[in-house]
Specification:
Helices cover 32% and strands 35% of the residues. The chain has 184 residues and is of the alpha+beta class. The protein has a domain of 127 residues: Aminopeptidase (3-Layer(aba) Sandwich). A hairpin with a 4-residue loop joins β4 and β5.
Length: 184
């Protein structure tokens, strides 16, 4: 696993920074939103203890180097609106996965694209990655557009990979190579 140190990434409108216990209420608000959870492969949270446990897990992952999870804050207000994380590192192969979520009232404003670009740049530059992977429910058209906008390419389809909201859900796999990123 790479050596992860707390960093702050700044974009035109956002600050990406290590998440903390102070994020629990905002983190809960995001993942208790049915629209957000719909494509997150699990039911929406119903108790703030779920956010507390999630933040504990995130902090432990920061400490052991297994995940770089950034809170996404609006520069203008300091409001936490989502998160983006690099995780499941395969150091020998210089690859990892990326996951992200944004509060639904902030969808359609380009924040996810902006945050992903910053996290991807960090992964390729600071962590020396060669490949970043993502998987989404193919019905999550907005997320697919975001991934493709930042340079990911569709690489595969896995039918009925998840069981969420009482139904099986498919997965589309995406990949982004450093050379694709450099060519863009």
């Amino acid at each position: 696993m790479p050596e992860l140190k707390p960093v702050i990434l700044t974009t035109e409108r956002l600050r990406l920074r290590w998440m903390t216990e102070a994020d629990i209420p905002a983190h809960y608000a995001i993942f208790s939103d049915h629209d957000v959870a719909r494509y997150w492969s699990r039911e929406p949270w119903t108790d703030i203890a779920q956010a507390e446990e999630s933040i504990k897990t995130i902090l432990a992952a920061h400490a052991d180097g297994s995940e770089a999870r950034f809170g996404i804050e609006l520069l203008s207000t300091g409001e936490l609106i989502g998160n983006v994380g690099l995780h499941h590192f395969f150091e020998q192969n210089r690859r990892c996965e990326i996951g992200y979520a944004l509060g639904s009232r902030h969808w359609g404003q380009g924040y996810a694209t902006e945050a992903l670009r910053a996290a991807i740049q960090y992964g390729f530059d600071a962590l020396n990655l060669n490949r970043i992977e993502a998987d989404i429910d193919p019905r999550n058209v907005g997320s697919g557009r975001v991934l493709e906008k930042v340079g990911f390419r569709k690489e595969g389809f896995m039918p009925e990979r998840w069981f969420v909201f009482g139904e099986f859900a498919d997965t589309v796999n995406y990949g982004l190579l450093k050379r694709y990123w450099d060519e863009a």
